[in-house]
Amino acid sequence: MSTPVQQLFDLRGRVALVTGGSRGLGLQIAEALGEAGAKVMLTSRKASDLEESVAHLSQRGIDARWIAADASSPDDARRVCAETLERLGAVDILVNNAGAAWGSPAEDHPLEAWDKVMNLNIRSVFVFSQAIGKLCMIPRRSGRIINIASIAGLGGNPPGMETVAYNTSKGAVISFTRTLACEWGEHGITVNAIAPGFFPSKMTRGTLDRLGEDTLASHAPLKRLGDDDDLKGAALLFASAAGKHITGQILAIDGGVSAVTGG
């Protein structure tokens, strides 16, 4: 017998952990999961940002908590996972969203900046996934992992974009997603990635100001940038029973840019 579609997307009784969840794309995804019924734990570095975001979610009727931590620190990452388990129960949904970018010509890119981007954008994804997998998902033979990649990980850069470390890290997230999906499928865990195009955010503000929002939007078949709702449907699909037969997939949400470039 088939399941009513509203029930497939219902996350009541589920616990979601969202890294980099205090603003931007992470907060947008937290809204979607919380509005579908999940309890949400946000983590990022700044307590003040987290307090503001949890208040925002609470006003929308979402049960949200926060833990301040540096996702690039393995010790902090493991602490967040253990504390989330203690405070909210086993994590059903892990959203690996924390990330950073650095703009520099490849020949001049500082090694310390390379390490900063790699540690946050890919090493933290591994550490959080490993910890939540061991603590919650593998023992329970169930789980949803959603990694936030980027269309920057699907190919090279257009002229004017000099983000070799960021692109490389997001390419690694895509490969990690596919690899972990194959390895953990036997445990009932799905692992998928969302690859956003340009969304206005603190991370992209410099690029948007330099190249122009209208110019960047003109490169997309839909002639627009992403907005505050555009990741919600995909996140809810990957997090819910509606996506139980989807794993190892990379979904570009970019207004069609990757269709033009062949990413």
Multimeric state:
single chain
Write the CATH fold name of the domain at 72-196 and 231-252.
Rossmann fold
What proportion strand?
Answer: 5-15%
Count of beta strands: 7
Description:
With 263 residues, this protein is α/β, with parallel strands linked by helices. The chain has a domain at 72-196 and 231-252: NAD(P)-binding Rossmann-like Domain (Rossmann fold, 3-Layer(aba) Sandwich), CATH 3.40.50. The chain is built from ten helices and seven strands. It has helices at 5-8, 24-35, 47-59, 74-88, 111-140, 164-184, 205-211, 213-218, 232-239, 257-261; strands at 15-19, 39-44, 64-68, 93-96, 143-148, 189-196, 250-253. Helix 2 links the parallel strand 1 (15-19) and strand 2 (39-44). The chain is globular and about 50 Å long. The model has no long low-confidence stretch (mean pLDDT 94).
Protein traits:
single chain, 263 residues, alpha/beta, Rossmann fold, 7-stranded parallel β-sheet, 7 strands
